[in-house]
Amino acid sequence: MAPMLSYDILVTSGDYAQPDLVHTIVVNHMFTWRYASDSMPEGKINLLHTVAKDQETFKRLRKIQNGDTVIIDGIEIYRIEAYDPSGKYVGYWMDQGCNTLLVTGVEIQ
User: Fold this and answer.
1) Which of 2, 19, 65, 75 is 20–30 Å from 84 (CA)?
2) How far apart are the C-alpha atoms of 94 and 100, rounded to whole Å?
3) Which of 72, 22, 27, 25 has its CA nearest to residue 51?
């Protein structure tokens, strides 16, 4: 429905960024996490569905590796309207708790 989504990037901080404390996984544009303790983890976790603004940005997104510290700039997309090749409307796609982002900049620290 949204083939222009190039990458899912799970952005974490605090306990969520510690693989020995929190196990995370992303499958089919959704994430889940499991914590090794009874208390809630501290920090933040967010899944970005990315659309690169151009080929250069796409290449930078491809260079991101697990564990990298990154700065990602962009514009939030709230809804993607879909049309078939003849121009007929076929539906829409919206995030359900994540963020779809038109990525305008990628910096790997």
Assistant:
1) 75
2) 8
3) 72
Structure token digits, residue 25: 């996984």
Which residue, among 50, 15, 52, 51, has the nearest Cα to 36 in the 3D structure? 15
Each residue's pLDDT tens digit, 28-82: 778 889 997 888 899 999 888 888 999 999 999 999 998 888 999 999 988 888 8
* Residues ≥6 apart with Cβ < 8 Å to 30: 47, 98
pTM of the predicted protein model: 0.75
Is the model's pLDDT at 3 over the cut of 70? no
Q: Which domains does the chain have, with CATH numbers?
A: 7-108 (2.40.50)
Two tokens, residue 5: 């989504």
